[in-house]
Amino acid sequence: MTPADDSPADRPIPVVYVEDDEDNVFMLKRRLARRGFEVLTAADGVAGVESVRANQPALVLMDMNLPAMDGWEATRRLKADPATRDIPVIGLSSHAMVGDRESALAAGCDDYDTKPINIDRLLDKMHGLLARKAGP
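Now predict its structure.
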């Protein structure tokens, strides 16, 4: 491999996926890996915050209903920390009740999506946030 072959565009995009359901992790991790993402996982909010701080991913996928620390609190902590506040967070939840999206955005999520995951819709949101983060 030549140095030109190892351009940033050729490297997987690092994402932390905070999710306690192993089936969801298995499914989404595989689908995202096929689309150029390197998915690091954490099974609860505490581990998710630690993983984001340690790995500085390009983006976070945050389940909102988690053990140990829920996704709302984990997101608030990430957005309060200068080292992680600019990392986009997409809140994910199986709850599609009125106000859930607004609650996630109020906690600091940059976007929100419902489960079951529609991969094309989620990828559109991920790419949109990554493009906004990259700037003009």
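Helices lie at 22-33, 45-55, 71-80, 100-107, 119-134.
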